[in-house]
Each structure stands twice: as C-alpha cells, then as structure tokens.
Design goal:
The chain is mainly α and 185 residues long. The protein is built from 8 helices and no strands. It folds into 2 domains: 78 residues; 106 residues, no CATH class. Helix content is 81%, strand content 0%. The chain starts with 9 loop residues before the first helix and ends in a 5-residue tail after the last helix.
C-alpha cells in the first residue's frame, strides 16, 4: 500500500467536505439535521487540518467561526433564517477583508495564494478588486434566493449555483492571469 507523502487531498476535503455532508444530510433528513452535520463536519475538518499540518488556514477558520455561530443559532432557535444567511455573511466578510486590505495597501489574496501563483502586483490588485465585487454580488444573490425561493431551491443554489458561478468567475479571470502572470525563472 502506498504511503501518502502529500496532503493535496486535505484542502479540498476541508473546503468541500462539509458542503457535501450538508447537501446529503439535507436530502436525507432535512435542514436542521443538515445544519448540525455541517457544523460538525467543519469542526472535524479544522481538527484534521491541525492534526495533519499543525496549522489551521485563516480562511477556513473564518468560515468555520461563521458556520458554528450561524449554525448554532439555527439549531438553538430552530429558525432556518440563520443558516440561510450564513453564505451572505461569509461572502460579505471575505469581500470586506479583501477590499479593506486594498485600502490599507495590503493584498491579502497575494499572501494567501502567492506561493502557488506568481503574478505582478498590479494583477493581484485587479484580481482582488474583482474577487471582492464577486463576493458582494454573491452575497446579494444569496439574499434574493433565500428570501424569494423555497428551501429546496436555496439548498440546490447553495451547493451547485454558488459553486458553478464561482467556477465561471474564475474561468473569466484567465485573461487577467495570462496578462500579469510572472514566469518562473
């Protein structure tokens, strides 16, 4: 049996595992059990990250805090509004952090991704601005969807719609990446 020298599987597991657990649990048992499941899966993911890498990444930690708070409120008050607002709060928080960083002359996105993607500073600034606006738009869209559609529709939107729109956004950034990418020497 091959020994796992790499933990490439860890990041996608921590990022998408709780979402998959939420989706499957929702369709099997409903929103409140799914909320408990995503809270538990998120905490387990962070613990797994710490046990394997002795480090908890900043963005998953921020997301986890919001999931635990809003998931906890949903379960405690038996009110689905809080879990439906969670994506809005996460998107607004991420957008504000990125945009706030730009106003403070800090490009947090470069700090987070700089080791995997080498780009000119102007490219990082443009990408950060675009990503901030995307997060704000996604927050607004989540608000419209959960306030006007059924819970079933919202769950599908949360799992597939947000992911699909994020992939489309990232694909749309390829010209920017090509323009400002720095070739490794």
């Amino acid at each position: 049996m091959q020994h796992l020298n790499s933990t490439k599987w860890l990041k996608p597991t921590i990022e998408y595992g709780p979402l998959i657990v939420f989706f499957v649990t929702y369709w099997l048992a409903g929103l409140f059990p799914a909320t408990a499941a995503i809270v538990l899966a998120t905490v387990v993911g962070l613990c797994l990250s710490y046990l394997i890498e002795r480090h908890i990444p900043t963005m998953p930690l921020i997301t986890a805090v919001i999931i635990v708070i809003f998931g906890g409120l949903t379960l405690w008050l038996q009110d689905e509004t809080f879990i439906k607002m969670k994506p809005t709060i996460i998107q607004l928080t991420l957008g504000a952090i990125l945009l706030g960083g730009l106003f403070a002359n800090k490009v947090f996105l470069k700090s987070l991704m700089g080791s995997s993607l080498q780009m000119e500073d102007v490219g990082w600034s443009i990408l950060t601005r675009r990503l901030s606006l995307f997060f704000f738009a996604m927050a607004a869209l989540n608000e419209v969807v959960w306030r006007t559609q059924s819970t079933d529709f919202w769950v599908n939107f949360k799992v597939f719609g947000i992911l699909g729109l994020t992939i489309l956004f990232l694909i749309a950034q390829t010209l920017l990446l090509k323009r400002y990418l720095v070739e490794k020497k």
